[in-house]
Amino acid sequence: MRVLHLITSLSQRSGGPLRAVLDLSAGALGLGIENEIVGFGPVDIPDNPLSMDRIHSLTRRWHTTYGYSRQLGTWLDHNLCRFDGVVLHGLWEYPQLRCSRACRRMGVPYACFPHGMLDAFPLSGHGLWKTLKKRIYWHCLERQVVDNARIILFTSSRELEDSSTTLRSLNRSRVVTPYGVRPPAPPPHAQPRPEIVQPEGRHVALFLGRLDPIKNIDFLIDAWAKAALPDSWRLVLAGPGDPRYLSRLLKQTHRLGLGDRVEFTGIVVGADKNYLLQRSDWLLCPSKHENFGVVVLEAIHSRCAVALSTEVYLSECFAGFPGAAILPLSTGAWVEFMQTKMLSDEWRHGWAEHCFAIADQRFAFAKVASKWRDLLLEVFGVPIGAQRPPDLPVKASCGGTGTAVNT
Predict the structure, then answer these.
(1) Which of 4-18, 32-46, 303-317, 357-371 has the lowest mean pLDDT?
(2) Domain spanning 2-180+365-380, CATH architecture
(3) Which three-class secondary structure state does DSSP give residue 261?
(4) pTM across the whole model
(5) What is the pLDDT of residue 393?
(6) For residue 369, how many other CB atoms are within 10 A of its CB?
């Protein structure tokens, strides 16, 4: 079986979904699923597990958040017929709309994988104007994409439940999909950059990911300042971010008198990323919204303890430990945690082992990749040339126009 994954960005700076798509695609290759990825912009994937001939980079005419690309239609006309199914990663952009229409026209089934984009916070947590725009766009265009998908995929039960209360869709084919990433593995003999190496005896609390308002970095810095931890502790903020937001964060650290007690490293990959995950005492994730949390799994696999906000949906998997480090978005709660449990090596080791045992059982990558393969076979398990379900037209030949479908 051959499956195409459409994702808007081919840069690892874009965050967790690309990492998971790459790892799952590579993991399923040896299990009978031929995966290819089509996306936009330069390929910037230092830890890429797929061969480059399986990744197709297209250009956009205008570099806007909507992602219009004339080249996408031409590419789909010439290539879509090679695939038994398509997974659309993300929503609210031109590529998903264009690809869904091409799939319907050419008789290729597709799945929608919103990656949290149908949750309440992405829909209404960015102000009235953006909320209104999305609701209008939903009724005019986006609902077509979701309603005509063969299935909608979710990374957690909470994401599925949340999406059921936001925007009304006629599509009732919804499933929580196997999801996860390979445990981090440093390249042989690779060494981290000297400037990120932490001296012996220092305790490190790490944030790893995009430095974005939704990740609540300003909240974290404020809590760090109020906790007034011993001099041996450092907060390391590792990841890319919009220059304006980074400037705001730097001004905040200076205003709070934190000086060198908060470090900004920029994006980290490969040996740098693995070093920080293995060297840090804690990964701190105070996000306002996180439909899964790929970096959380990476930290747990590295035996790094994690402190998560209740809005990180993956946190629910690790509840059950006495006083679990799953915290509400309250500055007081995070300050109290930093001043107590975060400083206890004994408590940290117990919590880290609890999380590792659960992750090893529920998210072992070999199991996840196998279940991902089984799901794709179930959703798209119609060989090319076989009789397709009555709700889909016959697949067109490459380069043709196919059977018209009203949109």
Answers:
(1) 4-18
(2) 3-Layer(aba) Sandwich (3.40)
(3) helix
(4) 0.83
(5) 44
(6) 23
Domain ranges of the chain: 2-180+365-380, 194-362
**Exposure class string for 184-201: b at 16+ Cβ within 10 A, else e:** bebeeeeebeeebebeee
Mean pLDDT of 309-330: 91
Cβ 88 vs Cβ 100: under 8 Å: yes
> What is the Cα–Cα distance from 299 to 190, expressed in whole angstroms?
19
- Burial label for 170, CB within 10 Å (0-12, 13-18, 19+), is exposed
Estimate the crossing angle of helix 70-79 against helix 94-106, to 10 degrees: 30
Helix (H) or strand (E) holding 264: strand 262-266
Say yes or no: do domains 2-180+365-380 and 194-362 share a fold.
yes
**Does the pLDDT of residue 129 top 60, yes or no?**
yes
The CATH number given to 194-362 is 3.40.50.2000
The full DSSP string for 70-89 is: HHHHHHHHHHGGG-SEEEEE
Q: Which residues are 386's β-sheet partners?
A: none
pLDDT at 346: 95
Q: Are 290 and 313 in contact (CB under 8 A)?
A: yes
Q: Look-up: residue for tokens 């730097």?
A: 250
Judged against a pLDDT cut of 60, whether residue 239 lies above it is answered with yes
CA geometry: angle 235, 237, 239, nearest 5 deg: 165
Task: Name, of 47-51, 326-330, 399-403, the range with top average pLDDT.
Answer: 326-330
189 confidence band (pLDDT: 50, 70, 90): low
CA distance 382 to 402: 18
Contact 288, 271 (CB under 8 A): no
